[in-house]
Amino acid sequence: MFNFFKKKKYPEYWQKHINAVKNSRNYSNYESIRFVCLDTETTGFDYDNDRILCIGAVAIKNNKILVSDSFEIYIQQEVFNKETIKIHGIRRNGTEKKVSEEEAIIQFLEYLDDAVIIAHHTKFDITMINEALKRLKIGPIKSKQLDTNFIHKKIAQGNWFKKLFSLDELCEIYNIKMHDRHTASGDALLTAYVFLKLTFKYKKNNVLNLTDLINTNYYLNK
Amino acid sequence: MKNTIAERIFDFLKDYPPFNLISKETLLEVSKSVEIQYFEKDQIIFNQNDTPHEHFYIIYEGAIRLYRFVDNEKHNLDICDEGDLFGLRPLIMQESYLMGAAANEETILYGIPISLFNSIILNYPKVSQFLIASFATNTRDPFSDKHKGKLFANVSSIQKIENSFAETQSAKYSKNPITCNVETSIKEASIIMTKHIINSIIVAKDNIPIGIITDKDIRTKIGTGIFSILDPVSKIMSSPVVTFPEKITVAEAQIALLKHKVSHICITKDGTDQSELVGILAEHDLNILQTNNPMFLVREIKYAQDAETLKHIRTKASELTKGYLEQEIPIYFITKVITEINTAITKRIIRLAVKELGQDPPVAYAWLAMGSQGRSEQLLMTDQDNALVFENVEDEDYERVKEYFLKFSTIITQKLNIVGFEYCPANIMASNPKWCLSLKEWKAQFKDWVKHPTSDKILLSIIFFDFEYIFGDKELYNQMSESVFRYISKKQTFLGFLSKATLDNPPPLGFFKQFLVEQDGENKDHFDIKSRAIRPLVDAARIFSLHHSLKVNNTIARYEKLMEEEPQNKDLFESCANAFKILLQFRTSQGLANKDSGKFVDINNLSKSDRLKLKSCFKPIKNIQDSLKIRFNVSQIP
């Protein structure tokens, strides 16, 4: 009874997100899976106090990065941190068109649809998004998630003890031209390149399917 | 909505043709719909005969090789790299790919949607011209395996394209041709040909082509009474036939007809004369397509009655050249066609001169071409360089004979001048008594040059030792060239002298790998591509060819022959041939863009990639010069 009541309170866009992931028929065939590579720029690294400034994302389907299927949104924030402006270059009153956090989340979830999320250090981006969802009294995000860091660790030779690789390091290893570091969309595109190269390498010794890819995650599995 | 990714793609595309021709707004729209694909080394993007993709491609990173199977043999046609376009076929015609494409190294491609681009083509004629030009280069290059499209892809050289891209179309031919068998009598065959109104009939066994009979055979072999009409066709047929596989392009067909000097090509299932006949392609089929094709011009030349007509034809030919260059057809092919036409014109003029004199030449003679014409490397209108050799005659006849040939040569050079070949400023022409000599005199002269190589004689050797037979008695020419080889083999130090002369042009890179540019004068800061890059390669090829007594003059052909002669130096010679091709095309496109000879290149105006490509040609120059130095003991030449 209580559950039913709670469910009713969900805003339509959130219910839509839940259904999209739950009812998707696309996950079984690798070619039909839509992946969304995303990156966020934030005011800082504190999950409680910092906020998302920008979400950038681009989709991959059947080994192709689809520029036509990309997403970029800037969020108006009260929280501000002078230190991180140096990194992401988004000023409080910059020229980008900015929307409210809720509007951004609505548009993002709509864009996301049933896609599988790919990010580098996915945990950080997803936690920031989940914190935003929490403020809207919804969440956490339902989408399946992958992390380029862990896919790399699965197929890389050698340094098993190194826990984390930065995006810079992966670009170096996989010989990807770096540009636009530290813009959300730029990093999302780099992540997409890394992912394409990783899956090609991965395919050589493994069958490429979603379940196995997800199994490369240590903490995101549910 | 801001779209950072599309902006980055825009930033990349905007530097490369044809995207640099498109307005910013439109290009941004294009950028938004790009698909990015990654390919590992050797992964295939598409196969020959695959159905067309919905995208064409530009290389963002890496390199793609294009290849084509002919007769089950793989031919690598081209290597494309950053900024190059490929897979344009579906954009131009709805046909499957004529070539396969595979990643030559790790590669990232941008796929541009064809549906979107079709509307752009309508609005930007220059874009469509560019694409057709690129398309033309990519689909045809049976001669060189390293033709680099990008180097010449400066849009300024694409002012207009009048010649259609017909040459790269699949050639149309008659399917299910009429055949007869070996025992058929000539009379029966003629009746079949008359009934079907055809000018040829294929002699086949189990539908495998064995030979062919054309109208001409009946005229020359039956009409003349050599054979009876009741003889079997096998008596008069031409056999074996020239065959090609079903997917033959117009260009391939043209070249095959020229090369084999035939009027018909049999199209068979697998392209060999051992497989089933599927069609016949006649010269005529191509002529319908294009009236100003080289063969058509060559035929017109044969029937021209005066120099003015020849001039008119030559103008048409130079338009054809321009069209070829604008379409970025490989230079090797263009020079071949132009040489073919120039030779045909010269031959026709010689015949006309005999007619005009009203008196046949008193003794056998041969007309010779020198310099770039001798090397078949002429492109645009150039000076005449020619000479004449006549049979040895008794002393008392000499004056009379020489007088005839001088008069004869003067008429020829005059007519050549009318057609558009300027007189040679150094007077190296057969009308000059010095270069209109008997065989004996030529031999004595060559012997003197080789034995006593003073600087003026070395200069003459460089010009004259590229002589090529054009018309007349070939035996005289053969004897001349053999005498040169004989003298040189007896006195190898002569090649040392020649090497020393060419080494006076230092390799074009300075100590800090900078371009060596002209220090002063009108062309200050310009790079002299002709003397510093092209000539050293031409000279080296000549010296090595003389060393091996090779009877070829064309620089590319010389290097190719040298690769066979010295397999241990194959790489060196191959790199020289490739560098030469690139430089020649570079010079031509520069010349066209600046409306001059293309001799000087303004280094500062080159794009970075062009500069790199130009530089990459210099290493072979240095290597071959080092090799000359050692091989011919240049240090011991005073």
Task: Show the helix and strand layout.
The complex is a heterodimer of chains A (222) and B (638).
Chain A: H1 2-9, H2 12-23, E1 34-42, E2 52-61, E3 64-75, H3 82-88, E4 98-99, H4 101-112, E5 116-119, H5 122-135, E6 145-147, H6 148-155, H7 167-173, H8 184-205, H9 210-214
Parallel strand pairs in A: 1-5, 3-4, 5-6
Antiparallel strand pairs in A: 1-2, 2-3
Chain B: H1 4-13, H2 24-32, E1 35-39, E2 44-46, E3 55-61, E4 63-70, E5 73-81, E6 85-86, H3 89-92, E7 100-103, E8 107-113, H4 114-123, H5 125-139, E9 174-175, E10 179-180, H6 186-196, E11 200-205, E12 208-214, H7 215-222, E13 243-244, H8 250-260, E14 264-268, E15 277-282, H9 283-289, H10 294-303, H11 307-326, H12 331-357, E16 365-369, H13 371-374, E17 386-390, H14 395-419, E18 436-438, H15 439-451, H16 455-464, E19 468-472, H17 474-490, H18 493-503, E20 526-528, H19 529-547, H20 555-565, H21 570-594, E21 600-602, H22 608-616, H23 618-631
Helix pairs in contact in B: 1-2, 4-5, 10-11, 10-12, 11-12, 11-14, 12-14, 15-17, 18-19, 18-23, 19-20, 19-21, 19-23, 20-21, 21-23
Radius of gyration of chain B: 27 Å
User: Cα distance, first to last residue of chain B?
Assistant: 75 Å
Q: Give the termini distance of chain A in whole angstroms.
A: 26 Å
Do you know the CATH architecture of the largest domain in chain B?
Answer: 2-Layer Sandwich
What multimeric state do the chains show? Answer: heterodimer
CATH topology of chain A: Nucleotidyltransferase, domain 5
Tally of discrete structural domains of chain B: 4
Counting helices, strands and paired strands, the structural category of chain A is alpha/beta
- Which protein chains make the most extensive interface, counting residues with beta carbons within 8 Å of the other chain's beta carbons? A-B, 29 and 21 residues
How many extended strands of chain A? 6
The CATH superfamily of chain A bears the name Ribonuclease H-like superfamily/Ribonuclease H
Give, in spatial order, the strands making up the sheet with the most strands of chain B.
1-8-3-6
Low-pLDDT windows of residues of chain A: none
Q: What is the CATH class designation of the largest domain in chain B?
A: Alpha Beta
**Average pLDDT number of chain B:** 80
Number of beta-strand segments of chain B: 21
Determine the CATH topology of the largest domain in chain B: Beta Polymerase, domain 2
What is the 3D form of chain A? globular
